[in-house]
Design a protein that fits this description.
By secondary structure, the chain is α/β, with parallel strands linked by helices. It is 41% helix and 17% strand. Helix 3 (81-97) packs parallel to helix 4 and helix 4 crosses helix 14.
Length: 466
Amino acid sequence: MNAGPLRSLAPRERIAAIADPRSAGPVDVSLAAARPSPHLARWGIEAQDDDGVVLARASIRGAPVLVAAQDDRFLRGSVGANHGDALRKLFDVARAERPRAVVVVAASAGVRLHEANPAEASLAHALVALLDLRAVGVAVLALCVGDTFGGASVLACAAERIAMLPGTRLGLSGPAVIETARGRGEVDASDANAITALFGAHARSAAGYVDLVDDTVDAVRGWIEAATRSAAPFASRVDAMQRELDARLVASPEGPAPADTTRAKSLLTTSAAPLYAGADPVDDAGWLWRVRDRPIWITRTIGAATLGPRDAHGLSSAILAHLCDGSAASERTLWVVGDSHGHEASRGAELLCISQYLAHLAAVIALVRSRGVRVRGALTDVGHSAAFFATALQADDLYAVDQARVVAMEPAAIARVLAIPAAQIAALVEDDPMIGQPVRIFARWGAVTEILPEASALRGRMRASG
């Protein structure tokens, strides 16, 4: 067993280091097969056979586990379509086999923009599978051995327990993204000390958001054993996280979002307004609406705003209050509306660890699904980045209107990452299968159940579901 620091090891070596001697091996034949991305050659990038994630079965201190180790040496560990699909299949295997735990050794920059559409869809499906796995009682643990950002940070935060090694960073929006969106006064991406103080492992641990684990094999194995032994039922963990996130908001300078029914109703002047005709808000802030005389609930659209920690927590609170009350869940349907202008990219959101709020919202959706509530997704305008990922893409089925768009990242950011002139990007976002934004393009990757001509037709589909 290699006893060196995990951060200095390759993914396969990391697995061998934390596993009991000679216990690590393939999960099964299908997951051991090569899965190179077919989408990278167009960008002049050589694909890697494992697409940046190594999967294994092993034992850790005698307990059977399945392990996924991301490879931050390959495109910064970014999650491509095959990478995300491999994670989903691993969680599906775990759901059938019921090992003591699944350990995600995380090190990823998030969704791979070179193949943004299929990658976002596959990572969203992996998140669904992870949470459904937790719902049947299998512990999922996340250990950040490298920087973990974007959708990968939401996946890591969806684990029952999350730990970070010293020197690693965790966040939804990277420093450059926040600086671009808010200005250098908000976050100076060139100030290494300030970035570490915001995203770094010691800062996250000091705030009580994660466990800090020394970068030694014994410390990591000890954390995995202790976290596995302390695993709690999914519903209990969701309730505990709800209280923790609520207390975090109360203690923050801005406090929790106030009830604002007027604002809730004003948002319904957007393209999503027809969905709420014949429905009424069931909570003071209008986070959740119920169709009159039918067991159909609809989450409030974020619309032209961004989804921040307070919004995500408001949605979680309303769903828990009205759909986890022990009533006949099998007769209920929850429609999760994914319209927004993305997640909140700000220093304040990262101080609260917005990744955990989005992961918790996805966990709440998984909890009601585990209790028999039918979960459907709706999109009438723009499904944007992690906000879409953690809401409508967590549904069992997704229905969209024809003019809807799916935005993995803004064109300027895509142009920067892919080194393509902005003028060329403007054309690609309209028709390219990888980065095109019209929902008809996103639908090619199997993530959309049906495209309807307009919101009134989607409303009809909603009413027929109850």
